[in-house]
Structures are given as structure tokens and as C-alpha cells.
Amino acid sequence: MYHLNEAMISRRTVLKGLGTAIALPWLEAMQPIMTLGQTARQPAAPLRMAFVYLPNGMHMQDWTPERVGADFVLPWILEPLQPFKRDLLVLSGLTLDKARPNGDGNGDHARAMSAFLTGRQPRKTHGADIRAGISVDQFAAERVGQATRFPSLELGCERGAQAGNCDSGYSCAYSSSISWRSENMPNGKEVDPRQVFDRLFGNDSRPEQAAARARRDMYNQSILDFVREDANDLSRRLGMTDRRKLDEYLTSVREIERRIEHARRMANQPPPQPNMPRPSGIPQNDFQEHVRLMYDLMAVAFQGDLTRIVTFAVANDGSNRPYPFLTTSRNERVSEGHHDLSHHQNDPRKHEKLRTINRFHIEQFAYFLGRLRAVQEGAGTLLDHVMIVYGSGIADGNRHNHEDLPILLAGRGNGTLRTGRHLRFARETPLMNLYLNMLDRMGCPTDSFGDSTGRLHGLDR
Predict the structure, then answer these.
(1) Which of 363, 461, 405, 411 is nearest to 117 (CA)?
(2) ∠ CA(424), CA(339), CA(324), 5° rounding?
(3) What's the average pLDDT block by block, 10 residues per block, for the chain (461 residues)?
(4) Tell me: domain 48-191+287-461, CATH 3.40.50.720, correct?
(5) What is the pTM for the complete model shown?
(6) N or C: more exposed end of the chain, with fewer CB within 10 A?
(7) Residue 326 in 3-state DSSP?
(8) Rounded CA gap, 251 and 233, in Å?
(9) Where is 125: in which H helix or E strand?
(10) Which H/E stretch holds residue 325?
């Protein structure tokens, strides 16, 4: 009878210091130690899932591939994903019916965002009696979240109010929340990379975290300075490959910390005009850096197995953020707001600016996928061990339609997904059907979710 000895290092080992707890990436030393006559068994990597939300729909003409199957060409907006074509699925034909009016009149942006992960019709109110439904991320977190330090993370790049009228009689909570803990409790999202970093790598003692932060600020120290003794002790016990992995991981943590501190220093610069309010610690005038920092934090949270479930709202639905740092092929700056441009009324210049915004967002997503693929984990990479939904609850922003949505599924789902294809599903196929497939793989199957009608066919490897 074969048996396995315990691993040299537990998966739950952390590097500790004042106010600090840094989880480790996957290391070979975490595998069971083999002795003569035993049969090796590769431990299964944990499966993670994430949901990335984009507002205001897409320029669908440059999003949808012409061909179905493996022999498809990525359209202009999706071209930055070419290096990851074999790692993703383009899913056409999916519908978010509960984002439609269904008798409730205007308010498509509020409904699109609040229904994207719930599949439930939000109650039209801007009072305290909000109601949507539990979101798929929280459904999974309730069942498998106890395996990690954080059951889930909720991130974003735009703050959002939880009260007031933001969209045709709908509460602001609807148009700024994709994650819902219960039908009347949206999850607030963290938009400051510095606070996310401190949360991920701080211990559970708030006084110690505050003391560590004060020391780091006063003496210009790194969070790694507080765990150096633990890190050196661990490194001496590791083989060459694991030492390299640990060094790469800690270097990545330090680089994120350095960029966050740079953003903080820039935010603390005196304002150019005396009456201008001082900005927060969020990267100012560099939206790309803000987005990429959030993606980096997602990657390192997955790498350290701090959580296996993340939602990331790049912007609130209805966001009118301008993108003046972008230039179209006509050499025009995208100075108008995103929401205004999404109501293009078939104006060619607005089309051009809208698709430029869409491609910029895809470029940032490609950066994230590259970060995941660069992390070796067991016999594969971190990108092999994730499922990431990327999309919007609106298709064409001018029409405010909610069928044939722009949806991507990236990652190989621990080898269970047959990626590298464009799939087209029958008209009116609920988006929630996709989530049933994902919940199966996360180990928390259910017969129905939201307005689902059954599982999607054709995803399996």
C-alpha cells in the first residue's frame, strides 16, 4: 500500500513581521516528499475565478469574430489578445434579460451592472428598499471561500455611492455594484491600490498594521523589511528552483508596492492651483497605471492563494470618464466622455473613439493575462488555473440592448475548458447558464442561478 509523507512546507505558511503576513506562492517544497517505492502524485492546483466588468457596452462591429470554432480571427478590438488566443473563449449570443426594462422603463445602466452577476431584476427604487439578488461570486464565496484568507475580493477603479438617484429612478447602488452579498446588500468595492495592498499583506491586528504603515512611511521602508528574517530562514530550506520562485514573487510584491508609493507621492504633490482640492492616493492622471495596479494585485492575490474569487469593475456603468490620453486612427484625442460616445447615433467619429476606448481596455486585460501566464504553478501556469469572465451587461451602448453580449472567458479552468474558440449560442441563451458551468468547476454546483435555463454545452475539454 502506497502512502505519502507530509509536504516539507505547508501551503498555508506565511512570512510574518510587524503588522505583516505575506502568503507564499506555490512551491515544489509544498508537494509531498517521496521515498523509494512511492508513486508521485501531483497535487491539484486550486481553481480561481474572476469577473471583470466594463461599462456602456462595446463597439460590436469590431468585437465579434466572423467565424465560429477554432479557425477564427480576432477582430480589431480583440487583437491585443492574440498571444492568448489559445487560452480564451469568445462567447456570442448570451443574453442578460433582467437588464431589460421588463415593464420598468429607463435605467439600462443600473440594471446592466446589478444584474450582470445576479441574473435578477433589480427593484426600481432610489430609496433604502433596494433589491437585486446574491451574485455568483458571493454564492461561490459562501461555499468555498473558507479555504482562503479572504473569501472574495471586490475591486474597482471608480467609487460609487450607495444611495441617491443615479439612473432614471434607480439607486446609485445598482450602477456601481456588481457584487451582491444578498438581495439587498451590495458589496462595496475597494478602489485605492494602497489599501488593497495593505489588506492583502497585513496581519489581522489593526494596531500592528497601523504601526507598520507608520514605520514604512517614516523610514521609507518596504513591507519586505518586516519579513526579511522569515524570508531568509525559509530560503535556506528551499531548493534552487523554489528559491528563484520565492525571489520572483517577493520582487513582484515589492514592485507593486513601489508603484503604489510612487502614486501616493504624486498624489501628495502641491496642487497646481491654490483652490484645487488635494487628490487621494489613487494614481492621478494615469488611468492605465490605476487599472494595471489593480490587475497586479489580483494576480498576486491568486498567486499567494489569498483568495480564489475576485470581481473587478473597471468603471461604473454609465461612467462618463474621458480618455484624452488616447488617440484614434484619425489622430483625434478621445476627450469626450465614454457614456456620451456610447450614444454614437452612427456617427463615424464617435464609432472610432468608442472602439479606441474598447481596445484600450482589452490591452489592459491582455497585460493581466500576461501576468498570470508568467507565473509557473505546478505543471502549468496561473493562467491554466483560472476562469475569468470579461464583458459588459450592454451590447451596443446606443441601442441599450442586452442580447448578444460581448463576453470572453479566459483561462483553462484547470484543464477542463476547451479554449481557443469562438462559440455562438442560440439567441436568448441566458448569461447565467455560463455561471452554472463555472460553479460546477469551483466545486459548488447548483441546479439554477438567477434566470438560468441550463448549462452551456460545448465548453468542456
Answers:
(1) 405
(2) 110
(3) 48 84 88 52 80 98 97 98 98 98 97 98 95 97 95 95 88 96 95 94 79 73 88 90 91 91 69 43 85 97 96 97 96 97 96 98 98 94 98 97 98 98 97 98 98 97 84
(4) no
(5) 0.91
(6) N
(7) strand
(8) 17
(9) none
(10) strand 322-327
